Amino acid sequence: MKNHLLTALLALVFGFAGAAAWSFSGLGHAQTRDYLVANPEVLPEMAGALQQRETEGRLAEVADEVETPFPGAVLGNPQGSRTLVKFTDYGCTYCRAAEADVQKLIAGDPELRVVVREWPIFDGSEGAARMALAAANQGKYPQFYAAMFELGPPTPETVDAAAQVAGLDLAQARRFAQSDAVTRELAQNMGLSQQLGFTGTPSWVSGAQIFQGAVGYDALAKAVAADDPA
C-alpha cells in the first residue's frame, strides 16, 4: 500500500508516466526518499492532486446521472445552460446556511439550473425528503424546498406545514412519497454520494468540480462560472 501511494505521488512529482515504474530499491528509492524528506511541503499538494484526479475519474463515470434530476426537483431555470448539483438534507444546519448563497446565485444568473439531490442522512430527515419528491411530482418543489428550510428541523409537523405552504394535495403527496419511484431515487442518491466520496451534506457538483460543505457564495459562483459552456 505504501509503495502504491509513493508510486502515484512520484508520477505527480516528476511529471511522466515512467515514474510509476520506478524500482523502490537501491539508489532510486534513496533518491526519492531524500527528495521528499528535503521537500516535505510537496506532500500535501501531491496528495490533494492525486485525490482530485481520482475524484474527477469517479465523476466522469456518473456525470450524466448526477446532473439528471428527479422530474421537477430543480431550482432556478430548469433549462439553464449552467448546472450546479446540490446533495442536501433538511436536517443539516450547513445546508440551511448555504441556502442564501444558492438563492443569490439563482437571482443573479437566469441560466443557472440547480439540481437538488435529496440525501437524507440525519435522523428524521427521510420523511421530509420523500415529501419533497412528492412536491416535485406536483410541480411545486421550489415552494416546498424553501418552506422546509424556513420552518426548521424536519418533524412530521414541519413537513406537513411545508406541504401546506407549498399548496400540495396532501393525500396524493403522502401516497407518492411512499412510492417505489421515490424509494429508488433516494437509493440512487445514496449510491451516487458514495461513489463520489461524499461524507456529508451539503455536497456539490459543478462541471468537473466536486466539493463539500457550506463553502460560501464566492466559491459556488466561481465553480458555476467555470461550467459556462461559452
Average pLDDT confidence is: 86
Annotated CATH homologous superfamily of the largest domain:
Glutaredoxin
Going by CATH, the architecture of the largest domain would be 3-Layer(aba) Sandwich
CATH topology of the largest domain: Glutaredoxin
What is the number of beta strands?
5
Q: Which word captures the global form? A: elongated
The number of domains is: 2
Distance between the termini: 43 Å
What is the number of helices? Answer: 10
Helix content: 55-70%
Order of secondary-structure elements: HHHEEHEHHHHHEEH
Helix and strand composition category: alpha+beta
CATH class label of the largest domain: Alpha Beta
Short recap of the structure:
The chain is α+β, with helices and mostly antiparallel strands.
Highlighted features:
230 residues; alpha+beta; 2 domains; 10 helices; elongated; disordered N terminus
Description of the molecule:
With 230 residues, the chain is an alpha+beta fold. It folds into two domains: 2-40, no CATH class; 66-226, Glutaredoxin (3-Layer(aba) Sandwich), CATH 3.40.30. 59% of the residues lie in helices and 11% in strands. It contains ten helices and five strands, in the order H-H-H-E-E-H-E-H-H-H-H-H-E-E-H. A five-stranded mixed β-sheet has the order 1-3-2-4-5, with helices on both faces. Strand 2, helix 4 (93-108) and strand 3 form a beta-alpha-beta unit. Helix 5 runs parallel beside helix 7. The chain is elongated, with a radius of gyration of 22 Å. The chain starts with a helix and ends with a helix.
